Structure formats: C-alpha cells, structure tokens
Amino acid sequence: MTPQIDRHPRETLDRLLGVLAADPAVKSVHIGGSLARGEDDAYSDLDLWVEGEKWNPECLGGQFLVATKSEIAGMPFIHGVAVGGTIIDLIHSAPKWEGCARLDLPAPTPMPPAPLPGCGLVDEFWALSLKHRKNFMRGYEKLVPFGLDFDRRLLFRAWAMSETGSDPGPNAFNLFTLKSLHDAVLTPRRMALLGMPLRTREEILAAVEAYREEMTRLYPVPSALELTVRALGLAN
Q1: Are residues 116 and 83 in contact, defined by beta-carbon separation less than 8 angstroms?
Q2: pTM score > 0.70 for this model?
Q3: Mean pLDDT of all residues in 64-91
Q4: Distance from the CA of 122 to the CA of which of 7, 68, 208, 210 falls in 20 to 30 A?
Q5: Is 121's pLDDT higher than 80?
C-alpha cells in the first residue's frame, strides 16, 4: 500500500477545511502557529481551532491516522497525525481561542463521519518518531536526543510486551519496577541499542533508524501510520 503524502501542511489544511465546511455544526475555523504568522514550511504542524459547541470531531475521524483526546485550558483538544503525515493540534469549543486567524471556508466536500483512530503503544512510537523529522530537516538535530528518551521508553515497553505478554505502562520507569523487568527484557543486544552514541548528526540519525527497525522487528505488519512516516523520510 502506497500512503498518501502531503508535501506541505497547507495541502492537509485545504482537505480538512472542505470537510469542515460541509458540517453544519461548524461555526468557524481558525488557525494559529506558524501558518497564522506566515512563517510555515513543509515541516510545520497545523494548529487549528474549530468553533462549534455541538461539533463532533468524528466529522474528521477519517482524516486522521492516529489521534488522542485530552484538554488544554479546559477546552477539548485533539493531537494526532493526519492522513498525509501532517501533525495536527486541534482545539474545539467556544469562545474563540485567542491568537488565531479566521479562515475562509471552501466549497464543502462532505465525508462520512468516522471514529477518531486510537493511539496504542506502537502508534505512539511512530507518531513521536515522525516529530524527529522536523528537527533534522530544520538543522536542529541536537534536540533529537532529548526526544529519543521517549523512543527508548516505548521500546522498553514493547520488549516487555514481547517477553511477558503485558505492557508495564508508562509508570514502569521507577527503580522498583525496572528491577523486576531487567532480567526478562534487557538483553545485551537491547542494551547496545539503548546505549548507541549520540555525538554527531550521523550517530543521531543512526539511532533513530535503529529504533525504528527494532519496533518494526517486533511488530512486522506496518500500520498506515508507519508506512506514512517511512515514506516521508527522516532527513535530507
């Protein structure tokens, strides 16, 4: 399966706006972040705010590869990756979120509603790995090692699942729990992966790729998200 790839977040935005324009519960759509400031590039995220007290985000369910729901400043918040590979942060509520610019809606393109796709451990890994691309492409690779801490934690949990049949969860990273998992999980090969050097751009790239390959080894049937992340590439 060849994934759809958006070469710029504005391609994703145009598609989402068409779907939103067809939804009578949408009162207005606003954009923030770099696109609102005119400072966007091919690696920018989409920061959207949808006004509509009765708006159901399942209107856009089919437009996401993965999504998580939470709250920000007391308002419903969706963070995810869209079809095409753009990272999206979306607030929906009233009144309007300050600092956003109102967008003109295009001709509507009705789409059937669909549940927002969930985000399991493997999905979370690929969504986080996608974020490394922005730093590599913008020349900020020195920031990537900080993000790799999350990759390592997700790999550790995936190893635990493969050995014990259960996910120890994000709260497993304390001295007591790690002691009990040490013998079952941390083989010499895995320790070598966790200890890969991160001194140069080339070494950081090698570590990201090695972690990706390890997750694929554990879960060899690729999701649409993994296929999209790989198709986008990691660095020039």
Answers
A1: no
A2: yes
A3: 95
A4: 7
A5: yes
